[in-house]
Write a structure and sequence with these properties.
- By secondary structure, this protein is mainly alpha-helical.
- The chain is built from 25 helices and six strands.
- The chain is elongated and about 100 Å long.
């Protein structure tokens, strides 16, 4: 113990240590609970936020109805109606143009963030701006969306409602004392509440938030979002009842042959989702090359919407009634093809022009149309397969969204929640998974992430358990450590550093008192910079040692290093907190990943019996 330095491999006897070390040790003495009182407070805020967001969703729906009635029927009413039955004749072409002009003015003099369907913009704020959305977006986004959709824009109301709910959550997180992580949770809670209030689909709303907005799966974020979605759905029940948004006749149990057909159908829709995504951003690129200000782009997109709406009036507006009729099998094959083709053209041009609107309803319309049309063809060509046209439309509706957005679970559950058809779950899971597979094989980014990826924002939607959380310090940090005596003088330590063996070539050295107890850590730089030769190593210490136990995880060790701006941690025994039994360094944290990388890339030989 009295030797100036020692190699330690035995924790030895427990000796009391200074209170400062006990304080450092207590942080790792026991695993904290997954949730705390702070999460309860965030849950309460999320529920209140959901009630407000659900009310805003109803107001936005009424506002869209008001604009639609004024623009197409010249009457004052908030009834949510389709513009397809308008009586304006050829002048209907000008209505979307006027709406586009108003949206362009709002984008130029209000905020450019109103352009697009909202979810990518919310994702970007989460990733780059600590979930801070400007307060003016809570007004400008729903107002611009109501104008764009109410004047015939082929969008869904759900995208702007989700974006508005997210903006409300972000605003609440900025007005009240919150961390960036809590503000992200409130943003996701508001977005989930907006979707749940629109479709009465709380579970898929939570899944959508997890798959697209939270970028994590943790109890402290999942619980507030789930409570918000449930609260918003209850508000919707009060206003519009509990009936499914897209009611369908009772379905029959599909057989194995039909299920195979739905898998192939999902693959086709996955390929279509890739084409749709690329088409939207190709058109957006064409608009960006125009030699005019972006303020005029929505008007040009509105002109295309109006011209198409002149001979295909079903493409105007949200089109929820179209989806319902497709899922019910009420539309003939010719209408299926005609509607989905022109809806796709109208929507891609309008969205590429940078106006304000959503993606869910147009994708659902196109997917249901293509799925239903293919279902009709299969039933006529191969009736023995037992394909149900209604299930084919349902699978098509969900599969195209799963492929375009990469929100696989949200797509499956959404189709179930909006139809309440449990026998459709298996075809939905099979078809959506096939679409998801084709999409992932065909393109790197989704329709939600392509825009922000082009802006240089790194986006990942792959969630995995933190590898460092699965490895203990004892697996990498228990080894012999070169320690220095606190009573040594700086000159002697410097001489050993410059002339001694490789044992002294590392960068940090625990400093021990006369009793062999840890009192601090000095780096090589600290020792070599000591100018007074008679200075004791004890006097070079400027702060207490930050230590870690063998039972701690490498994640806890990494967090301690980052928090205290240090590159190494002495490992001390829990029974004898002053006794050094090892050391963990940043290099050890990197080396710990080597087995994980090997497991991902190494292909093992197949097992063979002896």
């Amino acid at each position: 113990m009295s030797h100036p330095e020692r190699n330690l491999s035995d924790p030895g006897e427990a000796i009391p240590i200074a209170p400062s070390f006990i304080e450092q040790r207590s942080a790792l003495a026991s695993q904290p609970p997954l949730l705390d009182a702070r999460v309860v407070l965030i849950c309460a805020r999320a529920v209140l936020l959901a009630l407000v967001a659900a009310g805003v969703a109803q107001l936005l729906t009424a506002l869209i109805g008001l604009v639609t009635n004024l623009a197409f029927y010249a009457r004052v009413s908030t009834e949510f109606v389709s513009p397809a039955n308008h009586m304006r004749g050829g002048s209907v072409v000008l209505v979307p143009v006027l709406g586009g002009l108003l949206v362009g003015l709002m984008a130029r003099y209000g905020s450019q963030a109103i352009r697009g369907h909202g979810i990518p913009e919310a994702m970007e704020q989460v990733l780059k701006n600590h979930s801070r959305i400007p307060a003016r977006m809570t007004l400008l986004k729903p107002l611009s969306a109501a104008i764009a959709i109410g004047t015939g824009g082929p969008f869904g109301a759900e995208g702007p409602i989700i974006a508005t709910g997210g903006a409300l959550g972000s605003l609440l997180g900025q007005l009240l004392p919150t961390s960036a992580a809590e503000r992200k949770t409130l943003l996701a809670a508001g977005a989930a509440a907006g979707m749940a209030a629109t479709f009465g689909s709380p579970v898929s709303a939570v899944l959508l938030a997890v798959e697209l907005l939270l970028f994590e799966y943790r109890p402290r974020s999942l619980v507030p979002v789930a409570l918000a979605a449930a609260a918003a759905t209850s508000v919707r029940v009060v206003f519009v009842g509990s009936a499914p948004v897209f009611p369908m006749p009772q379905l029959l149990q599909p057989g194995a042959a039909a299920l195979t057909a739905y898998v192939l159908l999902g693959g086709v829709l996955g390929l279509l989702s890739v084409w749709v995504t690329r088409g939207v951003y190709w058109i957006e690129t064409l608009f960006e090359r125009l030699p005019i200000h972006f303020m005029w782009w929505p008007a040009l997109g509105g002109l295309a919407v109006g011209v198409i709406g002149l001979f295909a009036p079903r493409t105007l507006g949200v089109g929820y009634d179209n989806i319902e009729q497709m899922l019910s099998g009420e539309l003939p094959l010719a209408v299926f093809g005609w509607l989905c083709a022109w809806k796709l053209v109208s929507w891609t041009i309008a969205l590429g022009s940078g106006t304000s609107g959503g993606t869910l309803a147009p994708l659902f319309t196109v997917g249901a149309g293509v799925g239903g049309a293919l279902g009709v063809l299969v039933t006529q060509l191969m009736p023995a397969l037992g394909v149900d046209v209604r299930i084919a439309a349902l699978v098509g509706m969900a599969a195209i969204f799963a492929g375009a957005s990469r929100a696989l679970l949200a797509s499956v559950v959404f189709a179930f929640e909006t139809t309440r058809q449990p026998l459709g779950l298996l075809p939905l899971l099979a078809g959506c998974t096939a679409a998801y597979l084709v999409s992932c094989l065909s393109m790197r980014h989704s329709i939600m992430t392509e825009k922000i990826a082009r802006r240089g924002v790194p986006v990942t939607t792959e969630y995995s358990a933190d590898f460092l959380e699965q490895v203990r310090v004892a697996e990498h940090g228990l080894r012999d450590v070169v320690c220095l005596n606190a009573e040594d003088r700086a000159t002697a330590a410097q001489e050993r550093l410059l002339t001694a063996s490789a044992d002294y070539q590392h960068q940090g050295f625990p400093i021990l008192d006369r009793g062999g107890e840890l009192i601090g850590v000095l780096t090589r730089r600290d020792l070599l910079r000591a100018h007074a030769p008679d200075t004791l190593l004890r006097d070079l210490l400027t702060r207490p040692a930050v230590v870690v136990h063998p039972e701690a995880t490498l994640r806890e060790a990494a967090d301690l290093m980052a928090t205290h701006h240090i590159g190494r941690l002495p490992v001390v025994s829990r029974r004898a907190p002053g006794q050094v039994v090892g050391i963990i360094t940043r290099s050890d944290l990197l080396a710990a990943h080597l087995p994980r990388l090997a497991q991902q890339t190494r292909v093992q030989r197949p097992w063979r019996a002896a």
